[in-house]
Write a structure and sequence with these properties.
Elements lengths: L3 H63 L3 E4 L9 E4 L30 E4 L6 H9 L3 E5 L5 H12 L4 E5 L7 E5 L2 E5 L5 H10 L19
Parallel strand pairs: 3-5, 4-5
Antiparallel strand pairs: 1-2, 2-7, 4-6, 6-7
Pfam families: DUF3105
Organism: Streptomyces bingchenggensis (strain BCW-1)
Protein name: DUF3105 domain-containing protein
Length: 222
């Protein structure tokens, strides 16, 4: 027969075992809660990140579409047939730029402008520097080897007499002679075309100029 002391010790041991069992169960429950909380938070964070990415990406795509370069053709008036472009970039960049037109009449460009103080170049010049000159309000006359010699000579004379203008050969263009300013481009048949004088009048430092009055000297000279 067990003594009273033995019964007391057994009861105490049973209580300790019960308490330890309850503690183990509580620790296990706490671990489950922590795991559930971590998983839930991770799912929420991932959801926010992914959702945010799609929102940002969709917004960026919308902005890019809104800023896409657009082209129209003038249908009436003095400059009928002239092409015009809108939403042209103006960021300074290094290296080559893939332009939406040829020759380019706007878009991202080199930080150094092509000298355009009546400068006539007998060799092709870099698009990226020429576009910067257009940003300053210059008119750029371009011509192919199909342009008549007399027209080239007459246009050279006009350019040399006109600050904020420049001229250079350019083979990859639609026509023997093109007149270019920021956002506009006009094909003419000859230097005698009356639209030549009007183009210079309207577009040398014209209202299309993004940086009116900016320098046309002190840039790239060749």
């Amino acid at each position: 027969m067990a003594s009273k002391g033995s019964k007391t010790k057994n009861a105490a041991a049973a209580r300790r075992e019960k308490i330890e069992e309850l503690r183990r169960a509580e620790r296990a429950r706490d671990r489950r809660y922590r795991i559930i909380t971590i998983v839930s938070c991770t799912v929420i964070v991932v959801g926010l990140v992914v959702g945010g990415y799609f929102i940002i990406d969709a917004t960026k795509e919308k902005d890019e579409k809104a800023k896409a370069v657009t082209m129209t053709t003038v249908k009436t008036g003095t400059f009928k047939g002239m092409k015009t472009w809108k939403n042209l970039g103006r960021t300074h960049v290094d290296g080559k730029v893939d332009y939406a037109m040829s020759p380019p009449v706007g878009g991202n460009h080199n930080q150094v402008w092509q000298n355009c103080n009546g400068d006539v170049y007998d060799k092709p010049i870099a698009n990226e520097n020429a576009v910067h000159a257009l940003e300053h309000g210059s008119v750029w006359v371009t011509y192919t080897d199909k342009a008549a010699a007399k027209d080239v000579t007459a246009l050279e004379k006009r350019v040399k007499a006109t600050p904020y203008s420049l001229m250079s050969p350019y083979q990859d263009q639609d026509g023997p002679i093109l007149l270019n300013a920021w956002g506009v481009q006009l094909k003419v048949d000859s230097a005698d075309d009356p639209r030549v004088a009007k183009f210079f009048e309207d577009y040398v430092q014209g209202k299309q100029t993004p940086e009116k009055g900016a320098a046309c000297t002190g840039g790239k000279a060749e």
